[in-house]
Amino acid sequence: MSKIRIGIVGYGNLGRGVEASVKLQPDMELVGVFSRRQGIETVSGVPTYTMEDIPNFKGKIDVMVLCGGSATDLPVIGPEVAASFNTIDSFDTHAKIPEYFAAMDNASKKGNKISIISVGWDPGMFSLNRLY
Questions:
Q1: What is the C-alpha to C-alpha distance for residues 58 and 85, in angstroms, rounded to an integer?
Q2: Cα(119)–Cα(65) distance, rounded to whole angstroms?
Q3: Going edge to edge, which strands form the sheet with 28-35?
Q4: Which of 37, 104, 121, 132 is the most exposed place for a label (fewest CB within 10 A)?
Q5: What global pTM score does this model have?
């Protein structure tokens, strides 16, 4: 069985957490980390690339985990990446979720991809708790 090939976009605390989690999953393979910063070294030793390198990985990564900030990073990076890759993120600016959803939905549909947004503890579990 082939493994799910994962890319991480952004390498702050969230990105490092995703890296640690992916490394524990027997059915996943971390292909690389993409960052605006150059020359970073990952904890696991997985290769790092610049944001400009992302298009070169079409067909080589199954899911991009978007680990940028919700305020300024994800509204720009999300739709750009979603046009070419399946994505998942933890966008958590609650008031802007409908706007972000529309941008991600539009980009994903154009690229025939799937994007799952606002996954995690907050939003996610906290949002479900509010609903209840």
A1: 7
A2: 11
A3: 48-50, 28-35, 4-9, 63-66, 86-89, 115-116
A4: 132
A5: 0.91
The one-digit pLDDT tens for each residue of the chain (132 residues) are: 799 999 999 999 999 999 999 999 999 999 999 999 988 999 999 999 999 999 999 999 999 999 999 999 999 999 999 999 999 999 989 899 999 999 999 999 999 999 999 987 666 565 656 555
* Residue that is written with structure tokens 């993120």 in the block: 89
The structure tokens listed for 105 are: 């939905």
What are the φ/ψ torsions at residue 32 (nearest 5 degrees)? Answer: 180, 165
Cα-based torsion angle of the residue sequence 18, 22, 23, 27 in order, rounded to the nearest 10 degrees: 180
Q: Provide the token pair at 113.
A: 């991809």
Cβ burial, residue 114 (10 Å; 0-12/13-18/19+): middle
User: What is the rounded CA–CA span in Å between residue 68 and residue 110?
Assistant: 22
